[in-house]
Amino acid sequence: MSRTRSAAAALLLSVALIPATLTTATAAETPVPAVPDVTTGKQTTDPQKVRDFWTPERVARALANEKKDQAGIARDAAAARAAAEATGGKGKSSAPRLTAEAPRILPAKKTSVSATAADVPEMPVAQKVPFPQNSPAIIVGKILFIDDAGKEHGCSGASIAADGKNTVWTAGHCVHPGDGRGSDGFYDLVLFIPGYKESLDTPGDYDAPWGEWVAQSFVAPQAWTRDKDYDEGDMAAFTVEAPTGYTNLADTVGAFGYRFGYGSDWSDIIDSGFPGEGYNRADMDGYTQFYCTGDVVDAVDWYPLDNRLEMNCDMGAGASGGPMVTTEGQIVGANSHVDIDDQDQRINDHLYSSDHGGQAVAVINAINDAN
């Protein structure tokens, strides 16, 4: 019997065995995906005080601390994953997936735009962005912040299409420690610098050719702020205040769109950020934007409760929060963590993002509602 006939026969047999009392679910009985809970917060520090705080010396300390942060983040992610596996994923949602999407926004003023190829090569060894002051490279920027102890840190992030046109997308750990404190836990002195670069005139200082944008309102999933869930929750968004002379972020540099809730397997992804180090690399300084290209896959194909995105990319500390973007300019993930050994040394070029499913949808919906 052919495979087609075998499949048809099996289907007919299964139908024949269904009890006569079984009824088909109506549309009203179809499960409706629940929107996950989010945590919101505000940065109330005077915007000019935030800008003034970030001197060259403090930025240098932030870049140095990024390298220390990477190991701690990787340890936390591995421990959380082991705990989830030990409990069989207890507490993980198996509800139908939420989806949300929006197209990319081009800058309002004419700027040089780098062409995007229909497909991209597999490039796990990150290269310097060739035209860092052109769109879409200027959509990506540096995030600076201090923790509760007053220590300086840095991440990457990107302007994202949202109501109000003043929103940045990044990793959850770049705005909140995930320690259960909710709204009170968001970091302070948070600054976003699109197109950030080292000063040519004063090495060790930085330039902000597209302005310094101070964070205003934060949104992160409770899966991060309460549970520190690296599989599903390490993402966040925050609105920014336009500096003098600018209208809004999206009109100034543009904004990536997004495709959330469409799974973990993607072809031809472009991943970018401002790494201070990389896997077997010594040429990354935290001031220069790098990028990788290639496919993204489900990190653990056989385990349905771990849908992290995995990409082969050797960018490391400082690239956290940088966007994983399709060739159509839509964010599908954000750099979260890497793999390390018992000596805190990175062991491969795998770069992971939390699954951008229902949690990401909840965050973007909440930031739109806030605007």
Please provide a written account of the structure.
The chain is 20% helix and 27% strand. The protein has six helices and 18 strands. The strands form three sheets. A six-stranded antiparallel barrel has the order 4-5-6-11-10-7. Strands 13-14-15-18-17-16 form a six-stranded antiparallel beta barrel. β5 and β6 form a beta hairpin. The protein is globular, with a radius of gyration of 22 Å.
Distance between the termini: 61 Å
For the biggest sheet, the summary is: 6 strands, antiparallel, barrel
What structural category do the secondary elements indicate?
alpha+beta
Q: Give the SSE order as H and E letters.
A: HEHHEEEEEEEEEHEHEEEEEEEH
What are its keywords?
6-stranded antiparallel barrel, disordered N terminus, alpha+beta, 371 residues
The gist of it:
This protein is an alpha+beta fold. The chain is built from six helices and 18 strands.
Topology:
Elements: H1 3-16, E1 38-42, H2 47-53, H3 56-86, E2 100-102, E3 123-128, E4 140-146, E5 152-159, E6 167-170, E7 188-194, E8 197-198, E9 206-207, E10 213-221, H4 222-225, E11 236-241, H5 249-253, E12 257-260, E13 266-273, E14 290-298, E15 309-312, E16 323-325, E17 330-337, E18 350-353, H6 358-370
Parallel strand pairs: 12-17
Antiparallel strand pairs: 1-10, 2-12, 3-14, 4-5, 4-7, 5-6, 6-11, 7-10, 8-9, 10-11, 13-14, 13-16, 14-15, 15-18, 16-17, 17-18
